[in-house]
Design goal:
The complex is a heterodimer of chains A (276) and B (451).
Chain A: H1 2-9, E1 27-36, E2 39-49, E3 54-58, H2 65-72, E4 80-84, H3 90-93, E5 97-100, H4 114-119, H5 134-146, H6 162-175, E6 180-184, H7 192-207, E7 211-215, H8 222-225, E8 228-233, E9 235-241, H9 242-245, H10 248-255, H11 258-261, H12 263-275
Parallel strand pairs in A: 3-7, 3-8, 5-6, 6-7
Antiparallel strand pairs in A: 1-2, 1-4, 8-9
Chain B: H1 13-20, H2 26-51, H3 55-63, H4 66-78, H5 86-110, H6 115-138, H7 146-153, H8 161-180, H9 182-190, H10 192-197, H11 202-224, H12 229-241, H13 247-271, H14 277-295, H15 301-329, E1 335-336, H16 338-341, H17 348-359, E2 363-366, E3 369-372, H18 374-397, H19 402-413, H20 418-430
Antiparallel strand pairs in B: 1-3, 2-3
The chains are: A alpha/beta (276), B mainly alpha (451).
Chain lengths: 276, 451
Amino acid sequence: MSFLAGHSAEPSSPLSSRPEHRPGSPLAVHGLTVAYNKKPVLWDVEWDAPEGRLIAIVGPNGAGKSTLVKACLGLVPVVSGQVAFFGSSLRRSRRLVGYVPQRGSVDWDFPVSALEVVTMGRYGMLGWCRPVTRRHREAALACLDQVGMADYAGRQISQLSGGQQQRVFLARALAQEAQLYFMDEPFAGVDAATERAIVDVLKRLKENGRTVIVVHHDLQTVRDYFDEVLLLNMRVVAAGPVDEVFTIENLRKTYGARLALLEQASSALADLARVS
Amino acid sequence: MSIGHESGVWPSLGETLHVLTFQGGFNTSVVLVGVTLLGVAAGLVGTFAVLRRRALMSDTLSHATLPGITLAFIVAVMLGASGRSLPVLLAGAALSGILGVLTVQFISRHTRLPEDAAMGAVLSVFFGLGFVMLSYIQTMATGEQGGIGKFIYGQTATMGVTDATVIGIVALGTTLASLLLFKEFRLVCFDPDYATVLGWRISLIDLAMMALVVAVTVVGLRAVGLILVIALVVIPPAAARFWTERLWVMAVVAALLGGLSGYLGAAASALFPRFPAGGIIVLVAGFFFLLSLLFAPARGVLAAGFRQLRLRRDIASQHLLRGLFEAGEAGGGEVVPAAALRSRVHGPAARLALARLTWQGLIARRPDGLRLTPKGREEALRITRNHRLWEQFLMAYADLAPSHVDHSADLVEHVLSSDMVEELERQLKARGRLPRHAGPPPSPHPLASGA
């Protein structure tokens, strides 16, 4: 817990609201800075994810939402800062962390079936060179069923629609049986049936006490789907329960002048104005 | 083991069969087995290398072996040892091949040069260095220079039992290792980031894959030659991909094609010792590739063309049936003159469709035109209903003008599955646009047919 001691000595940014780090929190991000080609993408991010909640990461394009997720998971190099999972290092917590990458991150023409992709979620439980057993295949099939895709188990993945592919990725993460889930834009470009399936899964995960962190782009559904929100634009603008943090004021700070250009965002603001 | 004819005359059928059935002498048989195993291993390892997009890396690797081979030869001769020792030459080959790969990785990690440019540079510089050293070897006072050429073009006919055994054992080991690491390779090829999240060290798995490629490439040098050994790693998996959508089937087919190429190539090389074995092996593999590209039912060119034609035929069938139905609806008679349908139905796919519908008994040909049979009417009713439902949906949800929906609906109606139709009905019902009767809703735009 050495970073906790160092924390108080740091000058606090006027924009970030800095909650106290709680030991054992599913995700504690401290002073995280990430740069691509010397251009900073995330700057001194300070955030604690509360346990057992559905959390949206919201911010404009290029705000570093996906980068934050990838940096936490060790997929992009970090300039400085620490990330702790359940009060421990990432290496020791791998089994507790599930991941749904962006759909565009893989080649869907790859020669595997939907079930084989979902079974990959079990690979972390298998040692090197150990074959996949029937028990794991059955668990994977159950996960496919949870997202309404059991009938497509044998389909080659390129023969699935975009929404179905997204559900396969979701089922693969479920197969990990993790405590904390990261989902990178799962709602992007999916059909209504898939959106319903994802929302169902989110609810069920919450009922089981899991924490889910979702990179989300649709401001209108934030209130309906999530308990907590992290407003991000290179640094943390605000974080906390949706009711307290998802305000016009904070959205203005996050989106700046661009907010006025986004029709979607402005109608969300209108909704907010009506509520408040 | 030279049972072939130095003069290049065709061997008799008996000789050919002898070689192919492992009766061409002990030596020939061992070489045949060794090279076959090499093909199996190369096909299997190549499957993963191709899917991980490392195919060109193995080409860099094989070309970068030349300075190692020549240096090993020079050192061996200077130390008074034999320049023909396969293990010594292969060790040199492996070392300089790996050095070449590491150089590429260093360049692409520390500069912004694209990897293919780095590979091109490294490949040619290493190969050039090897060539210069080769001409130095020609001036050396030893009678063993002739052996080096075999590593460039490949030679199986003069291979000894020991060499063939070394190749066979390494190939067998490589095969086993890639089967053991099947699960690891599958995930790293498909989604390396996810493998990282699961806690796997990608660099370690990639290293294992590269080591297997090195093993296959280096032992393949003697049989196939360093210019062409890449072909044995790349062509069988590429051919196998046309046959299947399953990774393990692809791996098995690639191993089979690789093994068959090695077997036939080595046999041909035994019968025609003057031909370069590498060239023959690669030609055999290339022949399998061509066959797969054209005729494989899963992803082959002909199968794709056939599916395309069938889709066009089905679309033409639906147009024809709906055209006949709407002509009747618009007040025309039962029999529609063929000329009236021409705007909708023309081209070879349409003629195919008409022939098929007639054969199936959905359309009856009359001297004065075409007529729907009762069975055809039923089918036409269903198709027209789907089309109009889709039109209604487009007007309700996409705000299309009635005069424009016909064309838009045309594009999609042919791919409507039955559950999509149900969903359509459900949504239209919610909007009160679904007709109560089971027939099609009236057309939102004037019908052109019958005119």
